[in-house]
Amino acid sequence: GIGCHVGYRIVTERSVLAMPETSIGLVTDAGGSWLLSRAPGHEGLRLALTGQRMTGQDAVRLGLADRLVPADSLDAVRDSLAVETAEQVFAALPTGPATLTAEAGPGYALESCYAAPDLAGAMERLRASPLEAARQDLDDLSRACPFSLHATWHGWHRARQARSLEEAFEIERRLVRCVLGRADIVEGVRARLVDRDNAPAWQPASLDAITRTDLREIASA
Questions:
Q1: Which ranges constitute the DSSP H helices of 118-191?
Q2: Which of 54, 119, 126, 136 would bridge 17 by S-S if both were Cys, CB 3.0 to 4.6 A apart?
Q3: Is residue 98's pLDDT more than 70?
Q4: What pLDDT score was predicted for residue 107?
Q5: DSSP-derived pairing of the beta strands 67-68 and 54-55
Q6: Cα of 117 vs its chain's centroid, Å
């Protein structure tokens, strides 16, 4: 949410990126919905919901970074910046291997699942998928805050229609304010970051328990 909005974005084979807000009862923020909604297809939606980690290669492929360079070359990049402009240094960096194709990664294989008309439909498609990656996604989604999952689904689709980063920020601000008024965020921070028992008691406890009132609250945010 901070590093991926800048003009020159470099990652290495050691880089790890994620937006894991649904695991603590929050929603994608810091402009993350803008970034992930502009990744190819629905892969960004998958990452927003599951909070799964991206490698540096993933980040380049999905448009969250521009150059993948070896970690042991970072000192040389830094030294070059002392004597050349950022534009010159950036232009000299490799654009990445040919393996950075749109078809790479489990997100592409599960594209049709997340292209569902709603979250319930996406869950049903994941259950029907024979792919092991679908099982992993279902496990991650089962651990996330149900209300946050719906809010994130809603926010991602709204951000995809946004005309500017500023508009996406406003969408996020309203949704963040919505979830901050609930008990989930306190429970999520307790379970994931304070006590670290990884056993949050979400309210409601499951996606099936989400009510129409909950959905109206999200839609009106």
A1: 119-128, 132-143, 146-161, 165-180, 184-189
A2: 54
A3: no
A4: 61
A5: unpaired
A6: 19
- Domain range annotation of the chain: 3-72+98-220
On the 0-12 / 13-18 / 19+ scale of CB atoms within 10 A, 188 is buried
CATH number for 3-72+98-220: choose from 3.30.559.10, 1.10.540.10, 3.90.226.10, 3.40.50.10420: 3.90.226.10
Q: Report DSSP letters for 9-63, one per residue.
A: -EE-TT-EE---GGGGT----TTHHHHHHTSSTTHHHHHHHH---EEHHHHHHTT
Q: Which residue has the tokens 């328990």?
A: 209
Residue 67's H or E segment, with its range, is strand 67-68
Predicted confidence (pLDDT) per residue in 153-189, tens digit: 999 999 999 999 999 999 999 999 999 999 999 999 9
